[in-house]
Amino acid sequence: MSMNRLLATAMLVVACGSVHAQDLGKVCHATSSYDLTVQSDRLVFDRAAPSPTRVVLSQGMLQTDGQSVSLSAEDQDRLELFQRDLRALMPRVKAVAQQGVGLTMKAIDDESGSLSLDADTRAELDRRLAAHSAELRQRIAASQSTHDWHGDAANQYANQVVDDIAPLFASALGQQALNAALSGDLQQAAELRDRATNLTAGFQPRLQQRLQALRPEIQALCPDIQRLSELQQGVRASNGRPLNLVLIGR
């Protein structure tokens, strides 16, 4: 469903490249063409095309593209359950995303341990990682819309992380390589370059392996997402088309 963007990109923290965790679409086979915005009195689903491009659910009311839809008593009850269950699911999705942030930051910290950073650089890296972790966690907690996690927004944040921590690695490794070269230890200088290359090339698959630990947490969401899909079945927009707010594939 549309919340898979929140889950996937909330776990997007970059070190030497973009890293995407497994998302609801891969694990639960759940997708949506809509973005979701959660407001105090309504749920708003929107997309560029096709119609309906805007669906509003609020206390037994359904509106699509600005037109109120007449609901049977059964459909009204099911949509009220849909809203209740979706609101209840959001904190659970965010909790998994928060776990992903922790795993990712720990992975960056552990990977940097292979670089033999000096104490000052190590302390500064820890400080910056803690700051980025706190900021990302706050963003997840405060977010009420999947619009917050579109590609451009996620990439912009990722680039900020890279721009902040990459110079630390470059400076530390450069100094180590320079010291080795000046002392005549060309083999150590070459090993430093190889170590940096391995960190860059191998970080993504190693992080993906770590994030497999989240698979049971994501799988636990699947029955509730399946229920959301079932609750909206048969409800149609003002133009007669099915809502299809949540789709479950095979």
UniProtKB/TrEMBL annotation:
InterPro entries: DUF2884
Signal peptide start-end: 1-21
Keyword Signal applies: yes
Keywords tagged on the record: Signal
One Pfam family here: DUF2884
Name this polypeptide is given: DUF2884 family protein
Species this chain originates from: Dyella lipolytica
Organism taxonomic ancestry: Bacteria, Pseudomonadati, Pseudomonadota, Gammaproteobacteria, Lysobacterales
